[in-house]
Amino acid sequence: MLEDPRACSACGGAVDVMTIDKRLDDGQSMPTKIGACLRCGKWFNEAGLLELHRLMPRRDGEGGS
Predict the structure, then answer these.
(1) Residue 43: which H helix or E strand, with range?
(2) Which of 11, 19, 9, 8 is nearest to 46 (CA)?
(3) 27-57 pLDDT tens trace
(4) Cα–Cα distance, 11 to 27 (Å, whole number)
(5) Is residue 12 predicted with pLDDT exceeding 80?
(6) In what order do the strands lie in the sheet with 14-23?
(7) How would DSSP label each residue in 2-15?
(8) Rounded to whole angstroms, how far apart are CA atoms 43 and 6?
(9) Residue 9 CB: number of other CB atoms within 10 A?
């Protein structure tokens, strides 16, 4: 679902995404994703993560010549 790294909407830093078990009212749990920006510390819930822009991975050899 969120394989690509995401960019923080506040500062543009990389967002670290993790999966946690969320407890439901009936005592069961379900996996859900949360994330935190590695630069500014802003937290994102699963819906917020889906709204973030993807970071473009840097590849060796791209850019200047």
Answers:
(1) strand 43-44
(2) 19
(3) 999 999 999 999 999 999 999 999 999 887 6
(4) 37
(5) yes
(6) 6-7, 14-23, 29-37, 43-44
(7) --S-EE-TTT-PEE
(8) 12
(9) 14
The owner of tokens 């850019």 is 63
The amino acid that residue 31 corresponds to is P
Core vs surface per residue 47-57: b (16+ CB within 10 A) or e = ebbeebeeeee
- pTM: predicted TM-score of the whole model, two decimal places: 0.71
Phi-psi region of 22 (alpha: psi -120 to 50; beta: other; left: phi over 0): beta
* CB half-sphere exposure, 37, CA atoms < 13 A: 17
Question: What is the DSSP code (8-state) at residue 57?
Answer: P
